[in-house]
What does this fold into?
Amino acid sequence: MFNPRECAGINITMQFAVQRCPELADVQHRWCDECERAHEQDPRLFAHVNPACGERTVCWSRTVARLPLGNQVGLCLHELGHLLDPRSGDPVEQEQHADLAVFDQFGIEMQYRGETELEWVDPQEVAGG
Ligand SMILES: [Zn+2]
Ligand SMILES: [Zn+2]
It folds into this structure.
């Protein structure tokens, strides 16, 4: 896969997000070696937003392609939440702020499902733009 946007869940989430929030149109997605290493250390980690990797950029581990669609949608929305609310501070609070930003912007409540409590959102919520 050349670009993470070829992942169905990331693709439908971005179409939906940009339509609702045009300021997200410039967000880039890229594969990131650091994400691959992080995922090997912690199976919950699939993506990050890190200005050192690029401004307005969501970095991904290629393993995201093997996740169910709902996890891809949840993860992508969560990372967009970090871009929507780039406040610094306590790491736990940053995670909460990201999901709050998703709720404020899109009216979508983040869910955490499965053994690893991974981000999950019903793909129907973002289907059809
Ligand atoms: Zn990165
Ligand atoms: Zn996060």
Q: What stands out?
A: The mean pLDDT is 95.
